[in-house]
Automatic annotation (TrEMBL):
<dbReference type="GO" id="GO:0003700">
    <property type="term" value="F:DNA-binding transcription factor activity"/>
</dbReference>
<feature type="domain" description="IclR-ED">
    <location>
        <begin position="75"/>
        <end position="257"/>
    </location>
</feature>
<protein>
    <submittedName>
        <fullName>IclR family transcriptional regulator</fullName>
    </submittedName>
</protein>
<keyword id="KW-0238">DNA-binding</keyword>
<dbReference type="GO" id="GO:0045892">
    <property type="term" value="P:negative regulation of DNA-templated transcription"/>
</dbReference>
<keyword id="KW-0805">Transcription regulation</keyword>
<dbReference type="InterPro" id="IPR029016">
    <property type="entry name" value="GAF-like_dom_sf"/>
</dbReference>
<keyword id="KW-0804">Transcription</keyword>
<dbReference type="Pfam" id="PF09339">
    <property type="entry name" value="HTH_IclR"/>
</dbReference>
<dbReference type="InterPro" id="IPR036390">
    <property type="entry name" value="WH_DNA-bd_sf"/>
</dbReference>
<dbReference type="InterPro" id="IPR005471">
    <property type="entry name" value="Tscrpt_reg_IclR_N"/>
</dbReference>
<dbReference type="Pfam" id="PF01614">
    <property type="entry name" value="IclR_C"/>
</dbReference>
<dbReference type="GO" id="GO:0003677">
    <property type="term" value="F:DNA binding"/>
</dbReference>
<feature type="domain" description="HTH iclR-type">
    <location>
        <begin position="12"/>
        <end position="74"/>
    </location>
</feature>
<dbReference type="InterPro" id="IPR014757">
    <property type="entry name" value="Tscrpt_reg_IclR_C"/>
</dbReference>
<dbReference type="InterPro" id="IPR036388">
    <property type="entry name" value="WH-like_DNA-bd_sf"/>
</dbReference>
<dbReference type="InterPro" id="IPR050707">
    <property type="entry name" value="HTH_MetabolicPath_Reg"/>
</dbReference>
């Protein structure tokens, strides 16, 4: 291999490793050490350490003085927030989420459709003295969350098949893991325009969600409310369902959707 090509290949591998390190650190909430990173990425501890020191100098990761673990740094947090702030879906949901929270009192949440699940992109805390909700950045499953089920139900048949034939993990004893039952629920969701998932993602929690459509008419996300099952029942009632459906319509219009919506 010519020397220039060799240097280019080495530089590319270095960039790839740096991105893999950032990904591992970001996904490990309590921090991660050099040995664990080297094992996970299949390389030497010395190589991992060199890359980490560069990332520390640039502020993308930091190391506690009394620990050997590395966590995400201020630069990475800032970068992530900048990406979220520039998302068209986020800017379209801000006022609507606040209005939905004020109308019903529950925590309001917006999620974006990704290939791997529903990414929580914005939340507004409810009025309860006990904060109930989901964290921004959480990735929710397509089969075990109201956000995921409603997005899947209004997606293409091919996408639905992908979900139904994929891994249907049981997060609790109430999570639907039978493809036939899940497919039947998708039909119900399409008729009424909303989904719930009481005790399915976590015991004691429920979410009511409706789909957000973009200018092409495709599902791009969901909007909903989150609370304890004692405050948000499996059948949420007409007032709650109507409020979430109306909010989904408002945000869909802001996302460029025009014409009748296929729900509610």
């Amino acid at each position: 291999m010519p020397e220039d090509d060799k240097k280019m290949a080495e530089g590319l591998q270095s960039v790839i490793l740096t991105m893999q390190i950032v990904d591992q650190v970001a996904r490990t909430g309590k921090g991660v050490g050099v040995t664990s990173l080297a094992t996970a990425l299949g390389t030497s501890k010395s190589r991992i350490h060199r890359h980490l020191q560069t990332l520390v100098q640039q502020g993308y990761v930091f190391q506690h003085e009394d620990s050997e673990r590395y966590e995400i740094g201020h630069q990475l947090v800032s970068l992530g927030q900048a990406v979220l702030d520039n998302s068209g879906l986020i800017s379209s949901t801000r006022d609507s989420l606040l209005a939905l929270r004020d109308r019903l009192g529950h925590s309001a949440v917006a999620s974006q459709l990704t290939p791997d699940g529903m990414l929580v992109i914005a939340t507004v805390p409810g009025r309860s003295p006990i904060e109930i909700g989901v964290r921004v950045g959480s990735l929710l499953s397509f089969h075990g969350s109201a956000q995921g089920k409603v997005a899947t139900a209004f997606s293409s048949e091919a996408f639905q098949r992908r979900v139904l034939t994929g891994a249907l993990t049981a997060f609790t004893e109430h999570t639907l893991t039978d493809p036939a039952l899940l497919a039947a629920e998708f039909e119900v969701i399409r008729r009424r325009g909303w989904a719930t998932a009481p005790n399915q993602a976590a015991l004691g929690l429920n979410t009511l969600a409706s789909p957000i459509l973009d200018g092409s008419g495709a599902v791009c996300g969901s909007v909903g409310i989150v609370d304890l099952t004692q405050s948000l029942a499996a059948d949420p009632g007409t007032e709650h369902a109507a409020a979430v459906l109306e909010t989904a319509r408002q945000i869909s219009v802001l996302m460029g959707h025009s014409g009748p919506l296929p729900f509610g």
